[in-house]
Design goal:
Blueprint lengths: L1 H40 L4 H25 L4 H13 L3 H27 L3 H32 L2 H5 L2
Length: about 160
């Protein structure tokens, strides 16, 4: 049975670059959409730029959807999907993905804090670094959720928290 385990590991390793590559692709599509939105704001070709903007966002959303279907435990993918829906002005959908990312980040924070409580001296610095990174990510998601609140103009949602 050892060969089978190794084969599985090889398969897993072969799939990693593909996932990472698609994740990078989605980020680039979101960046292109943002650049187009900025350029259309300052020019007269707003109509064609806007349709391209939407095409980039739709492409990003389908790439991110395929990533979530493959592995729904990567927090960054939930966050990026929220960003894509927010850029499409689909606040309800964006909020769902940001809320999921936030929940996962808070679970990660709890796990890291528990690890820290029982950590050896050599692991403490690394865990504190991970906690700091986690704190920044949680702030980022809160900022995105706050932007949604102002963009949408629905007060009942932002009052919940």
């Amino acid at each position: 049975g050892e060969a089978a385990v190794e084969l599985k590991e090889v398969d897993a390793a072969n799939n990693l670059p593909e996932f990472e590559f698609r994740c990078q692709t989605a980020k680039l599509l979101l960046e292109c959409a943002a650049i187009l939105r900025e350029s259309s704001a300052s020019s007269n070709e707003s109509l064609s730029a806007n349709s391209h903007h939407d095409q980039f966002l739709s492409a990003a959303i389908s790439v991110l959807g395929s990533l979530l279907a493959q592995n729904d435990e990567v927090i960054e993918v939930w966050f990026l999907t929220g960003c894509a829906f927010a850029a499409k002005s689909l606040g309800e959908s964006a909020k769902y993905y940001f809320d999921m990312a936030l929940q996962m980040l808070q679970d990660t924070k709890k796990a890291l804090e528990q690890e820290l409580a029982f950590a050896d001296d050599e692991d403490i610095a690394d865990l504190k670094e991970q906690l700091e990174e986690n704190r920044v990510q949680i702030e980022d998601v809160h900022a995105k959720l706050a932007e949604l609140g102002t963009v949408e103009g629905d007060d009942e949602e932002s009052m919940e928290e």
